[in-house]
Amino acid sequence: MKKLVMALALFGAFALIQAQSGEEDYFASENDQHSSDGTATEIISVEPIVVAEIAGSVDPAVNDASSSTPDMDMTASMDASYTAFQTKINIPLWYRWRDFSFNASVPYFITKENPNFGDPVESSGIGDISVGASYGKYLEQYKTYLSVNTTVKLPTGDEENTEEKDGFDYPIPLGSGSTDIAAGLSGYYFMDAFTFKGNLLYKMNGEYTLKDAFYDPVVMEMVDADIDIGDLFLFTAGVDYRWQYRLTFGLDFVYGNHMASEIEGENQKNGISYIDINPSAKYSISLFEFVLGARIPVYTELETYASWLSESDQKGRSMVINFRTNYRIF
């Protein structure tokens, strides 16, 4: 137990130090929004209990205590994430019936900032809710678990949210305003204390209408514009190491490509590609699982750069710190 506390303390201290070093500018905040996509990162993979059982990281007594059956179980979670520009909690819910599972995710922004050139403006509220389903199969002969999943993100967050300060309204959107669909393929290979994993995901982002987008000299007034949000491609590969049946360490490598958006059919050349590493530590006790993790940006490339700012400022993306609790209901 002392080793666990020390490991988590060192991990948390490292994460906090890294989080403080994020670029404090508007472009960094926008780039974080591109790469911190809720649909892609919060519901991306298979149900947590199934993989944990196959990997042997669940105490056998947990199955008896939870009264679950081989055909059905349910897990509720609470996830909190922190960056330099937002603090958010998320409530994922998983229900599995045989090889099928269904999930939902409800995010809430405790604080979300518009940097406003060093004088932040803050807001809070519910974000975009996601619902999804998956089908998974364990191929025992090959010690492999495969899963296909699909997720729909609904425009429940207020994309027109603003906050007033010093007589001005500053936009702080809590949602994208679009209905998005993501499809993914996940694979796990189990070898003794190691679990090797990979995921491919493609997210088809929808459209939304931006009110008073630009001034039309013909009608001499501000007009709306339809914006087609660029799609997202995500590839994740990683490994988990089960040090004890209660304690697991993981490391994931993530490549993402957020494609350029279009306004009234015109390419905005605002695409972004990036690489992150995601370390994590999981500890299980009774019906609970506690997960401490982080997303550490290591590479960012923008399709175009603003001429009045340095490339380093525009590439800056803050580290994300995550803490999650899973509870097995039955």
Please outline the helices and strands.
Blueprint: H1 2-20, H2 26-35, H3 38-42, H4 48-55, H5 60-66, E1 72-82, E2 86-97, E3 100-114, E4 121-126, E5 130-139, E6 144-153, E7 162-165, E8 168-171, E9 180-191, E10 194-204, E11 207-216, E12 221-228, E13 232-242, E14 247-258, E15 262-263, E16 266-267, E17 272-285, E18 288-302, H6 311-315, E19 320-328
Beta-strand percentage?
Answer: over 45%
Helix content: 10-25%
Q: Strands of the largest sheet, in order across it?
A: 1-2-3-5-6-9-10-13-14-17-18-19
Mean pLDDT: 79
Termini gap: 27 Å
| CATH architecture label name | Beta Barrel
* CATH C-level category: Mainly Beta
Major β-sheet, in short?
Answer: 12 strands, antiparallel, barrel
H/I helix tally = 6
Write a structural description.
By secondary structure, this protein is of the alpha+beta class. The protein has a single domain (2-328), classed as Porin (Beta Barrel). The protein is 16% helix and 54% strand. It is built from 6 helices and 19 strands. Strands 1-2-3-5-6-9-10-13-14-17-18-19 form a 12-stranded antiparallel beta barrel. The protein has a 4-stranded antiparallel β-sheet with strand order 11-12-15-16, with no helix packed on it. Strands 7-8 form a two-stranded antiparallel ribbon. It starts with a helix and ends with a strand.
